[in-house]
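Key result, reporting period 2: structure in, sequence out.
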């Protein structure tokens, strides 16, 4: 068995139960989840989780494990049990300004896997199965005049990939990862943010309707560095993303933003882990999602670990889900594990519900038609996150996609009403 990624630590005991109760008649599930703020120590804490490059170190998931209990394993097409064979491809295209370097390297390149080890079987499978990795390096003190764009285009079949983005000390960069096409794809994405550097990453998951994508993002943030991630998931049949952040020194800052819109039959799952393993660091997690259609399922699980040496930590995690039709389900599970009492702040919030009736009434009382009022409410719901991206063309693209999704919802509603007339 490979050594554990994290040293043994004792957790301070406290257990609690979080209840996220949707509004009456939403068709969404009431979610009750246990989480810890430090009291009775759970059987296995996040500080002791396994990390290994070897897929054999991880048992095949059964669906009963905490990290797999929401995921429909039968829809993973063998990515979790070793039966998937690499018979397809995902094309990787990189558009980067000077002085960024872009390399295609083999498995023996020492930089690959240097940020962190895989922490579940699919990530380890992807690490063992990829043939070529893409390495993007932003030199020390570089200030890019435009974003680096990485396009991942599924060409069908099953494929495995690896991407490393290395932003050196005091450099500043924006990276856009744009996913499209059809594939069954598992990959690891590493981000190394050097001391004093600034990195913003926008990941756009707009896969074809039949795509399956399981992606692990491993982030290491250096002393006084800032990392900002915007993870957007609109497409795919099943998309499961796992951003994981650790800090290399004091003064580091991580902001994780997310948007998702689940349609009928879609399974969109976001699992986050922020490891406060250094003092005086800050993290913020804000994810918002909308769901519509029978069988639409969104899962958001966010774990924040504050280790015993992470004094002065300031962290907060927030999830909001807006259920637009009956038959959709949202599971929202915020967790805190705290091993020191010397923190600036540590909190979380989660809610699932329908439209705010008061907002709709206010808009409609001023002559705005019901359909337009609903659009305005949903646009406002997402706008808080979208406008933090800071890239106008991406913001406009996402707002247009939200409008398209709403058009399908309202069109279906009118069709149902017409059929019943």
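The corresponding designed sequence is given below.
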């Amino acid at each position: 068995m490979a050594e554990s990624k994290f040293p043994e630590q004792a957790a301070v005991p406290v257990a609690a139960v979080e209840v996220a109760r949707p509004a009456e008649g939403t068709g969404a599930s009431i979610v009750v989840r246990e989480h810890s703020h430090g009291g009775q120590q759970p059987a296995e804490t996040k500080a002791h989780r396994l990390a290994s490059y070897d897929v054999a170190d991880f048992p095949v998931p059964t669906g009963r494990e905490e990290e797999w209990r929401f995921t429909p394993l039968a829809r993973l097409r063998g990515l979790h049990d070793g039966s998937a064979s690499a018979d397809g491809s995902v094309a990787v295209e990189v558009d980067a300004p000077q002085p960024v370097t872009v390399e295609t390297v083999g498995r023996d390149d020492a930089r690959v896997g240097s940020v962190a080890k895989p922490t579940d079987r699919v990530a380890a499978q992807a690490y063992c199965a990829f043939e070529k990795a893409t390495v993007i390096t932003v030199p020390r003190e570089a200030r890019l005049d435009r974003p680096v764009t990485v396009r991942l285009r599924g060409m069908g079949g099953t494929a495995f990939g690896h991407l490393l983005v290395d932003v050196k000390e005091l450099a500043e960069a924006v990276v856009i990862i744009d996913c499209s096409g059809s594939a069954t794809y598992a990959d690891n994405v590493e981000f190394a943010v050097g001391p004093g550097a600034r990195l913003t990453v926008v990941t756009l998951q707009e896969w074809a309707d039949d795509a399956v994508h399981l992606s692990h993002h491993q982030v290491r943030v250096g002393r006084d560095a800032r990392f900002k991630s915007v993870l957007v998931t609109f497409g795919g049949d099943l998309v499961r993303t796992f951003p994981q952040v650790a800090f290399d020194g004091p003064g580091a800052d991580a902001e994780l933003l997310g948007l998702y819109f689940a349609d009928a039959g879609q399974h969109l799952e976001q699992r986050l882990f922020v490891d406060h393993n250094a003092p005086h660091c800050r993290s913020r997690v804000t994810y918002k999602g909308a769901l519509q259609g029978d069988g639409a399922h969104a899962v958001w699980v966010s774990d924040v670990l504050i280790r015993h040496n992470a004094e002065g930590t300031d962290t907060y995690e927030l999830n909001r889900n807006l259920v637009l039709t009956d038959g959709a389900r949202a599971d929202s599970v915020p967790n805190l594990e705290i091993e020191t009492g010397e923190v600036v702040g540590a909190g979380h919030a989660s809610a699932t519900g329908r439209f705010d009736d008061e907002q709709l009434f206010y808009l409609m009382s001023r002559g705005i038609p019901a359909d337009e009022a609903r659009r305005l409410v949903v646009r406002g719901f997402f706008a808080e996150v979208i406008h933090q991206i800071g890239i106008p063309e991406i913001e406009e693209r996402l707002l247009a996609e939200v409008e398209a999704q709403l058009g399908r919802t309202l069109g279906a509603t009118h069709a149902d009403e017409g059929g019943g007339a």
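The chain has two domains: 14-354, 355-421. The mean pLDDT is 86. This case is discussed further under Risks and Mitigation.
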